[in-house]
Structures are given as structure tokens and as C-alpha cells.
Amino acid sequence: MTFEAIHDLVGRAIERFPDHVAVETADGRLSYSELDARAAHVAAELRAAGAGAGAFVPVLVEDRRDLAAAVLGILRMGGVFVPVDLAAAPARLRAMLLDLDPRWAVVGDPVDPVALQALAEAAPAARTVTAGPAAEAGAVEAHRAGADDPAYVFFTSGTTGRPKGIVGRLGSIAPYIRWETELLGAGPDWRVGQLVSPSFDAVLRDLFVPLTCGGTVVVPPRETLLDPAALARWTDEQRIALIHTVPSLFRGLVSAAIAGDHTLSALRWAALSGERLAPADAERLFGHYGDRIRLLNLYGPSETTMTKTFHEVTRADLDRPSIPVGRPLPGTEVLLVDERGRLAEPGTVGEILLRTPDRTLGYHRRAEETARVFVPHPVTGDPADVVYRTGDFGRLLDDGNLEFLGRKDHQVKIGGVRVELEGVESVLRAHPDVADAAVVAGDEDGSAYLCAYLELREPAGETLPEGFEQRLRAHLRERLPDGAVPALFVPLAELPRTLSGKTDRTALPAPVRRAAEGAGGEPPRTATERTVAELWLATLPMTGVGRNDDFFASGGTSLLVVDLLGRVNRTFRVAVPLRDFLLSPTVATLAAAVEQELLAADDPLDDLFSV
């Protein structure tokens, strides 16, 4: 297929639909013609500041209108855009900027204080360009783009605790966007929810699927994303036709939509990726909404550009133990190999290898790591015939679909976010009181979490010193994504070792429920509080909870808040607003919010507890 740059596809949509709304946020709208003008301004200002083809340009903006304009402008002048989530941990922001060492950056107007601080600490010499409204820009000579040009960098977690950048190839974006747009039938009347953080490559789908067909990128307020009730209401009221998200967030949305009696009448497709999709989640959707809302299960590591296999979920999948990730996209080949690198026998488990012309360019400044995962095809052995070693296990089912079975190494996904366990361990060891650490993944009734085993410099017995857990969480939250902070901390006199001195993970005790620091105070008083406490303990791997215990001090994260509220909404058939819980994240407060919603809905408590 002839190469066509993704920004040229957007340019055609700008010509066809100049007055359509391109991006809509709670703060305002941006038409396609206005988006064009802002992108031209960004391109012209970067050129004037000396940026040229191949320049790495971090985008440090909160407003998604600015994000869309910055991405287009950077591509037009031949640069490499690097979207940054300003809500990320400060140490992570610094590490990304230090790795890039940028000479230019795009910021909002006014500049976000977080962006100013990050640039001052890690890139003080970078010249900034504003993505917001500006006077008419001067003409910029069009950059002659090539398919192998670097286009973007997205950072994932690294084994040392420092993020590593994946460099995207320009020619790999448009083929996927064209494929998905055609498969779903997206058009100029589609409103696409933008739910993904700008720091994940899935944001490319959120932006470019609507912007190449004349549709609208619709962005919810940030606080709405963590509030299943608000997100369900927003999806309904904003008449969203398509969302890309992770199954855990989708689970909460559907539960809240059912509890709040939201019809989701405009929603046509939900494209899910990043986690394993449970049949129960699909069953809940189909059971209430029928087949009107269609589910697409996607799989593909960032290293191979967004998605590489797909499966439309049907009612027949509900009887499977797990929902498959499907068949490869056109031009993609899926290979399964055994532990010796030979093709696995049909029906047997093997590591998933992906062969695609639309892969990325590898890791920024990490040639050895790039060579370790981008390897010659196991059959041809041709160094020019490259496949990507995913590190995932899978098997081909009798019907030809690929079943995803999990990781083969020390990498997991929590809430759709890739977490390197060795990276979390590295950050733990950086704490002055931690001599060594080992981190494993656990699962509590469908909620994934991390458990950290700690060897302290001053042995603490079976319990941690008072106040230590809170201090350790603060240390981690300054340096890691929210989902990478362990829910459990288990002190050990010493970590088990192999004969060579390495941590023996096979000898670590299984993650077990433990009481969080300060947990188990005054017990729940009412039937509502007792039920809420049970749901709390089904979300967090704790042994007990008091009515006034703090959710976040007990190991809760923003991702687990969504899970907890989803469970509450399903159990009580209500839609509790997130703000009511965050004011005081305790069992007592959540139970009071439940009772208030039940009274407003005239749904007697006695009826619920007599079922």
C-alpha cells in the first residue's frame, strides 16, 4: 500500500469538514479549521525556534485541544511528538525529560505549573512553544515525510525503575487507523470518547480515528474518569459512539450505567485492550443492553504499534473460560514458539511472536534491548525478516483464534498499564530502610494488585514499624505510576535465595491477606456498612477493615477506587458519585452515600438485605 502520513489523512478531513467540531472538552470546542490554524502555529513556531526534522518535542499540556494541535504541528514540521501526562509522578516526569534531553517543548497557555517545574528541573535550556490560541501563523514549508521517519515516543516502565521510550514509526500509524475506521464504520457523525492518558500509545486511536473521518474527539473532565457513575452519565449525555478503554474501567462504567438506568443509546462500539477480558463482563453488557453495543477485544504491545490482533465478542464467547484476542490484522503474522525457539505444536502453549510491517523503531537509546526483542524470524532466520518477541504466552484455539494466557517474565499489567516488577523493586531498594525487595503480582476476585516482600535493614519481625508503610507509599508514589504501587507489604527476615545468590521467586510465600497499617479500628455498625466492608475486602487484599479506615492508606489506588465503586453500584443497584467518597474515603462515608442514593431512588434497604 502506498505510504500516506497520518497528518495528511487528518489534513484531508480538515478540507472536507472545516466547520465540524474536531475536539470538544468541558472548557470549549475546537473546529477542524481552528485545529488547522493552531497546528500551523505550532509548526511555524518550532521551525522559528530552530527545530527540524527528527527533533524530539515533549508535549506538556492538560487541554486535549492543545494536545491535538501540538501533535499535528510537530508532525507537519517533521518532528517527533512525546505526549506527557502532567498527572504522572514528578520523578517519572523528570526521568522522561532527562532521557529525551529536549531542546524544544510545547506547553499550554497559560503554562501549567507542573510543566514549568519539570522543565526547570530536567530541561532548563528547552525553548517552549505555546499550543493555545495564537495569531495567524506564517507559512511553513511542508516536510517531506518518509514511512520510516520517527513520529512519536511513548514511555513504558523499565527494569531499573526508570521509564524507557518506545520510538514509533510514522508509516505504522495510518494503516491501523484506516483499518479500525473501516471495520467500525466510523464517520463524521461519530463522537469518540477520549478516556486514555496521553502518555499511552492508545491515545493515537482516540485522536486519529475521529480526526481522519470528520468525527469529534470528546474529552471528559479528569475527575470523571475515576467515577464510574459520572463516566456512565457522561457517556450517555455526550452521545458517545465509541470508547477505547481497559476492561476494568469498562466494567465499572457498565455497572454504573445499569444502576443509574442509563441507556447508552449512542454507544455503538467499545474497543477493549490492555487486560484480559472476562466473560462475566461481556455477559453483563449483553444481558442488559442486548447486542446493540458491540465489543471488540484487542491485543498488541506498544512495540508493534497499538493493536495487532482483534476479536469481536459474541454471546458464544460467554461459555469460554477466557475470551480470545482473535486473529491478526491484515499483513500481520502470529507465531508461537516453545522454550527452544521452535514453532510450537498446534494447540500447545508458546510465546507469542508478532511479524508486522507496522512495528516501531525500538527503544530510545537502548540498542541492546531493542536487539533482544526484535529478532530474526524463527523459520527463515533472515536478519531482515524481523519479528517481535512479546514475552506473552498464548495458544491457538481450534477455530484459529489466539488465546492470551499471560506473561512469561517479570512484567505484568495493572489496570492496563505495563509494570516491570524489577523496576518497582529497584525503587523500593532506593528507600534508605529497605535492604532488598521482591515484588509479585496477585489477584483478588478479578482485581490485580502487587505484593512487595521486604528485607529491611533493621529487621522488624512479622509486622512493619509504625508509620513505615505510609512513608514507603509516599516514596513510591513520587516515583512510580499509581498502579505500580504495591497494595501489600510483607516483611521477611531475609528473601529466599538461589545458590547463585539471586532472589528465589519460587520460594516466596504466596500473597496473603494482611491487615493494613492502622486497619481494623471500630467495626462496621449497620448492615449497609457491613456489606460495604465486604466489598472493600473483595477489592483490597486485607484481612479486616474498620468503619473509619482510609481506603488509600490501606493500599487503595485510583484504579482500585473504580473497582470498589463498581462493586458497590452492582450490589446496591445505585450510582454513588466519586466525589462523595473522596471527601472521606472510609467505609462509613461510602455506606452513608449508598443509603442517600437508595433513599433518593425510593429503594428500601430492607428489600436489598432480604434477598
Give the arrangement of secondary structure elements.
Elements: H1 6-16, E1 21-25, E2 28-31, H2 32-48, E3 56-60, H3 64-76, E4 80-83, H4 90-100, E5 104-107, H5 113-122, E6 127-130, E7 150-156, E8 164-169, H6 173-184, E9 191-193, H7 203-211, E10 216-218, H8 228-237, E11 242-245, H9 247-259, E12 269-272, H10 279-289, E13 294-299, E14 309-313, E15 327-328, E16 333-337, E17 350-355, H11 367-373, E18 374-376, E19 386-396, E20 402-407, E21 411-414, E22 417-420, H12 421-429, E23 434-444, E24 447-456, H13 468-477, E25 488-491, H14 527-539, H15 558-572, H16 578-582, H17 587-600, H18 605-609
Instruction: Let me know the largest β-sheet.
Output: 9 strands, mixed
CATH level 1 name of the largest domain: Alpha Beta
Q: Gyration radius, to the nearest Å?
A: 24 Å
Contiguous uncertain segments of 5+ residues: none
Which architecture of the largest domain would the CATH scheme give at its second level? 3-Layer(aba) Sandwich
Please tell me the overall pLDDT.
87
Please state the oligomeric state of the protein chains shown: single chain
Gross morphology? globular
- What number of domains? 4
Helix content class: 25-40%
Structural class: alpha/beta
